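The data layer described in this paper is built around a simple, fixed record for each protein. Such a record has a labelled line for the sequence and another for the backbone structure tokens. For reference, a complete record is included directly beneath this paragraph.
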Amino acid sequence: MQHIRNFNGAFALFALLSLVPARAELTLSSAPRDSKENEEALYKPLVDLLSKAAGEKVTFRYGDNYLTYQSEMRKGNYDIVLDGPQFVSWRMAKLGHVPLVKFPGNLVFVAITKNNQDKIKDLKDLAGRTVCAFPSPNLATLTVLYEFSNPSRQPLVLEIQNFLDVYKGVKSGKCAGGILQAKLYQDLDKETKVARVLFTSKPLPNQAFSAGPRVTAEKRARIIQAMLSPEGAAATQKLREIYKVQALLPATVEEYQGLGKLLRDVWGFEL
């Protein structure tokens, strides 16, 4: 029996590694948000830091758009990745990734409607109605849509590119509901009080860097140490300024476990 267990364990490891393309260098990527030129310049200091810490060359691979980014991710073509907790968790379950460091704080989202929407009493009443929200697979949107178990009975997302316009869309009546960060909603509605909350999500961990199976445990430890060092703070300064993050913190497997379920209705990310 011991031989059988050893064989099964070795086979599972071989099967996982066989999914990861052989490359001469490690790759770093992140969810696309800017041009290739700007992204490469932004991550250049971090690439240099990671190369030194890992003891081998690390290159930044630009995702171009979400379709390309998600496709390359599913193929295991990214060794070190920064993005939201839903993707971190999915890579943990499907690609053998391990979280390294994270942005501090938790993320909480709300679904809101205008006070005079008397036909909308609770979240389920948004089914089939238009909500202003970021396009999927944005975490805020996924968190609310997950509450609707039947995809055919979900709200209809009118794609908005920032949370302020989500609130404005609800306020103006453009959308029956909206999905945005809880703290921002509180700030925006503090004076006007034109909206009410239909749903508040549980606190979710923030964005994190994760590393795949081509990054050994020893290299992961060195990378974590480097990213939490003063040199790491310097290398991530511009990145942290964009996300309004003062410092990085160690990330744990437990806090990201199971969040991949939020990608349930995103094609190619079934668990």
